[in-house]
Amino acid sequence: MRAGSRRPRSIARVEYTLPRRAASARLARQLTTGFLTGRRTPPQAADRVEEAQLVVSELVTNATLHGKGRCRLRLSSGEGTVTVEVRDDGLRLPRIRRPGAEHESGRGIAMVGHLARRLNVTAAPGGGKTVSAVLDAA
Predict the structure, then answer these.
(1) Helix 23-36 crosses helix 49-66 at what angle (to 10 degrees)?
(2) Separation of alpha carbons 88 and 109, rounded Å
(3) What single-letter DSSP state applies at residue 101?
(4) CA dihedral in degrees (42, 46, 47, 50; nearest 10)?
(5) CA 83 to CA 76: how far, in whole Å?
(6) What's the pLDDT at 97?
(7) What percent of the chain stands above pLDDT 70?
(8) Would you tell me how many other CB atoms lie within 10 Å of the CB of residue 5?
(9) N or C: which terminal CB in the chain sees fewer CB atoms within 10 Å?
(10) Distance, CA of 98 to CA of 101 (rounded, Å)
(11) Considering the entire predicted model, what is its pTM?
């Protein structure tokens, strides 16, 4: 194989630390839009702004409501995917529930699981967790 014959990878990444406040979900949606429509991000990522905003909003809301401390939002795009990762220091892991019709909450993680190609929850050694969702960008 000749040197330089491979196409360079086109992956963009960014990470933000958000306060534990309800307004963090709105800020996270704005940051996500800016990232996915930015010049460093592969053009096909812009096609997934709405889905990514929903996923980011849900995961950041869960982290600010049920987690501890600040949450970290990491976004990456490349090779046909958009990945959203949210980390917080809470011990409780999210789980998919079947809420009744009268319940106002409890549907978010199920929605994220439906939108994402892959949904992972990883417990961190010493506490905390990262919830990641991979969306198709093609």
Answers:
(1) 150
(2) 16
(3) T
(4) 140
(5) 5
(6) 60
(7) 83
(8) 6
(9) N
(10) 9
(11) 0.84
Q: Please enumerate in sequence order all residues whose Cβ is within 8 A of that of 110, keeping only pairs 6 or more positions apart, or say none.
A: 96, 97
Report, in angstroms and rounded to the nearest whole number, the Rg of the chain calculated over CA atoms: 16
Report pLDDT digits (tens) over 107-121. Answer: 788 889 899 999 999
Helices (H), the chain: 23-36, 49-66, 108-115
Let me know how long the chain is: 138
Q: How far is residue 72's CA from residue 75's CA, in Å, rounded to a whole number?
A: 10
Secondary-structure percent of the chain, ordered helix, strand, coil, rounded to 5: 35, 25, 40
Q: How far apart are CA 76 and CA 18, in angstroms?
A: 17
